[in-house]
Design goal:
The structure is a single chain. Strand 6 and strand 7 form a beta hairpin. It is globular, with a radius of gyration of 18 Å. It has 3 helices and 11 strands, in the order ββββββββββαααβ. The chain has a 6-stranded antiparallel beta sheet with strand order 8-1-2-3-4-11. The chain has a single domain, classed as Jelly Rolls (Sandwich). The chain has 214 residues and is an alpha+beta fold. The structure holds 2-acetamido-2-deoxy-beta-D-glucopyranose (NAG) (2 copies). One 2-acetamido-2-deoxy-beta-D-glucopyranose binds next to loops. It is found in: Secreted, Cell wall; Secreted, Extracellular space, Apoplast. One of its GO terms (cellular component) is apoplast. Its main location: secreted. Belongs to the glycosyl hydrolase 16 family.
Amino acid sequence: MPNHNHVCLITKLFVQLSSEGSAHDEIDFEFLGNSSGYPYTLHTNVFSQGKGNREQQFFLWFDPTADFHTYSILWNPQRIIFFVDNTPIREFKNAESRGVPFLKNQPMRIYSSLWNADEWATQGGRVKTDWTLSPFTASYRNFSANACIWSSGASSCSSSSSSSTSGTRAWFRQGLDAKSRVKLRWVQKNYMIYNYCTDTMRFPEGIAPECGMN
Ligand SMILES: *[C@@H]1O[C@H](CO)[C@@H](O)[C@H](O)[C@H]1NC(C)=O
Ligand SMILES: *[C@@H]1O[C@H](CO)[C@@H](O)[C@H](O)[C@H]1NC(C)=O
């Protein structure tokens, strides 16, 4: 997706699903820029009914400015899964049973933007945007959206006679299969650099209830 002309681009690229208003729902993929030669941070967040503070950040196993990659969000009433090139990197489960509102009552639109966040995003705000390198560009290709209709806990996709019982289509119906769980753990072990679920300094009153769900 991001295809920048300048590897030293210092800014933030943002792709999100979002509803409107102060109690909005939102699912974010953000790319935090860096000095040339240093890794970008892939920043993710989930807001439900206006409450966010659910950041998880990753380094990527490739340079996201060098080529197009596929960034996907699977969203159904049970879970939200973030994928990079079809590898799951994050799962946010429905934790309504623990009193956490889930993103399921508000429609969301997809937005994408490129903006300056050098007061916090780039090495914590230490690195500033070099405007002499502007204009900055981001390009997208091959956008696609698929939807299943859910009613009484069942998805229209489960009745489809689609040949694939694996892959993304199957995830519409259920969760990740065992192989994908292994991949998710691999990414989280090797590439995750920040997880709100383990930040007890930031949340001394206790870690979010959805964090303990497994
Ligand atoms: C930029 O690179 C530095 C050095 O490797 C790293 O600590 C930092 O997390 C990277 N990303 C951002 C957004 O600052
Ligand atoms: C475009 O997306 C489809 C699936 O949505 C995929 O099968 C195809 O390989 C993609 N093409 C490119 C050029 O990325």
